[in-house]
Amino acid sequence: MKKYIHRPGIFWIGIILLVVPGLVHAYLLMPFPGSQDLNAITVCYYLEKIVNPLRLIGAIFIIWYLFKFYAKNTQKGKIVKAVVLVLCLGSFYITDYMYKAETMFKETEAAKFANGLSNKVPLNYLVVGVVNNGVAKAYPVIYLGYHHKVQDNVGQQPVLVTYCTMCRTGRVYNPIVNGIRQNFRLVGARHYNAIIEDESTKTWWYQATGNAAVGKLKGQHLQELPYEQLTLGAWLQKHPTSLIMQPDKLYAPDYADLKNYDRVQYIDKDSTLKNKDSLIRKSWVIGVIINGQAKAYDWRHMFHKRILNDELNNNSLLIGIEKDSLSYHVWNAVLNGKTLHFDLDKNDQLTDKETASVWDWDGLCTSGAQKGQRLTKVQAYQEYWHSWKHFHPKTIFWKEGEREEPLAVIFGF
């Protein structure tokens, strides 16, 4: 019997199984130092499936040890093992609550909306705007940034409106997958981008791209739905009857944590950086993808320029940022087979050089030879540079005064 007194390995194996898988899983799915740079989404996916079974095995080992051998420990040994068990409870709090995405960022259970007359959201707040079947809805970025996702309907179209503050990525998707409307949960993050899981197949999807990274539907893509990102005031000028998502009082402190997120660039808060035009990880860019070719436009340089006539993959584009410095647009500059080139007049209106017609910031010609014509919108994204270049490694980068080159050439990849 004496030999069993010296078998603490049973206890420590149980502790390892009880604690370590959960800690590793939490580390890989949250933005801890170094964790997001690892290509570990597949490891995370399968680790999540075995964490609880391993915990159960660990608990069996520990219970076995406590019944068989604990009483035979020295007083010091008993205290050490009792303290370790208490610390285990603390680790569960860390892994299953404190650093669990679902508990850190809760989705509002019933999003409330108001029209322009009863709206309480400031007009200078940035929103993600969606229109379908004549119905317009605006989702303030500050609220989306905390919740990460809102599952809703716009004009009878189911929508999954998402936002990830680590990447500055807003995306709107159709939540119907293989004919079934899915309920999505927030899993965590990989490469600083939110990962969401559908309820039916448990597939994990990247928020920034809608790509299924791992799981039953790996390789498939969520259908992206068109949206605009602009100030609420600019949105209501276009869609005066729009409904606006209102703040959920339960999460007021969480919204407050994102104060000024939608308008102040990280580079402006960095007092150590003297050249504010430097390109850093959290520099804002406008991203566009045309027929598989991605291009990023430096936000600060675009803001100083205001509008840019450009080409991407044989498509003529007009990129513009409104005077409010937050609302941006990209249009196809070809109308009736002819390419138009634009300037800004003294009244901050768009004018084309070919006919001197005047256009508003919704792409509608309001006066001149082209009156009544409308430019076609091109889906564009505002994103942090680190996110755009990660998910679009072959992107072209535009910056005023620099020759355009693919990312691989610029950074020597």
Would you write up a description of this structure?
This protein is an alpha+beta fold. It folds into three domains: 2-99; 113-256, no CATH class; 280-410, Rieske [2Fe-2S] iron-sulphur domain (Rieske Iron-sulfur Protein, 3-layer Sandwich), CATH 2.102.10.10. The chain is built from twelve helices and 29 strands. The strands form eight sheets. A five-stranded mixed beta sheet has the order 1-14-3-2-13. It has a five-stranded mixed beta sheet with strand order 27-15-16-28-29. Strand 5 and strand 6 form a beta hairpin. Helix 2 packs antiparallel against helix 3 and helix 2 packs parallel to helix 4 (75-98). The longest helix has 28 residues, at 41-68. Residues 408-413 have low confidence and may be disordered.
Spell out the blueprint of helices and strands.
Elements: H1 2-5, H2 9-29, H3 41-68, H4 75-98, H5 101-104, E1 113-114, E2 126-132, E3 135-140, H6 141-147, E4 149-154, E5 157-164, E6 169-173, E7 176-177, E8 180-181, E9 184-190, E10 193-198, E11 204-206, E12 212-214, E13 228-231, H7 232-238, E14 243-245, H8 252-256, H9 266-269, E15 284-290, E16 293-298, H10 299-305, E17 307-312, E18 315-321, E19 328-332, E20 334-335, E21 338-339, E22 342-344, E23 350-352, E24 358-359, E25 365-367, E26 376-377, E27 380-384, H11 385-391, E28 396-398, E29 405-406, H12 407-410
Parallel strand pairs: 3-14, 16-28
Antiparallel strand pairs: 1-14, 2-3, 2-13, 4-5, 5-6, 7-8, 9-10, 10-11, 11-12, 15-16, 15-27, 17-18, 18-19, 19-26, 20-21, 22-23, 23-24, 24-25, 28-29
Transmembrane segments: 9-30, 50-67, 79-99
Protein name: DUF3179 domain-containing protein
Keywords: Membrane, Transmembrane, Transmembrane helix
